[in-house]
């Protein structure tokens, strides 16, 4: 059983198709209604007869939506073997949500942090009956994390002096630090957390960004979403990546993230800061 966020397009949709084809129970999530409808239909069309496909809709800039989706998932299954925290991307500007959060940090970091926390009972339940290391949580991170030298602890959501690319880089550095701390906390239960760098992928990614990002993406050679989906499938299922978590992968191989993404003190601090921010909005 696999939960894949951001399955309404790009990497998440391609990953959902792989698992539906393999006969898994797939729960996908998406935001934009028409993309969700189309993706749900296409994933179902490709699914093996023994597969089951469920599709949920919600906006991950809103933590209330993340919690609602977690509850809907809990109604569909009591057992999750793989969680792929993929939903995310860039924005074309500064957006403050109804809960007072900055949208890039909310979607790329706080939403996966909260969703993972809310789905822990289902992940732990799966881990009880599964061989050690087979229950996995995979974060879709990005090369861009390296441009952020350190988390801005005084202003994690960059509310003072926001810039689109800086916000994205910091949020993806947060994805890697979160994966590190998550793995440290969950490995005693036999759950492994890993992160993936998808590379430059031809998806809807750039369309959500500003001109700078759109130009940069237009100049970069991109792979199709099926390419990182293959690495995500490998990370979710292969025995060799179930042994030690907190690692970073690209193209079916381990890679080294920037030194600031390997900072255990920052990883632990980010966990506490994330809990604190969520507490301020009642989550
Ligand atoms: N493409 C690249 O070159 C690249 C490189 C490095 C990392 N990544 C990362 O890969 C992941 C997948 O991106 P992609 O390239 O597949 O882009 P994509 O085609 O735009 O897909 C992003 C997915 O995330 C969902 N999503 C985005 N914001 C959301 C929100 N606020 N609430 C709920 N769902 C949301 C989208 O939903 P809707 O479409 O339904 O709105 C879509 O399903 C992202 O985390 C991105 O940062 C991509």
TrEMBL record:
GO terms for molecular function: oxidoreductase activity. SUPFAM superfamilies: NAD(P)-binding Rossmann-fold domains. Keywords: Oxidoreductase. InterPro entries: NAD(P)-bd_dom_sf, SDR_fam. The keyword Oxidoreductase applies. The keyword Lipid metabolism does not apply. It holds the Pfam family adh_short. This is Short-chain dehydrogenase/reductase SDR.
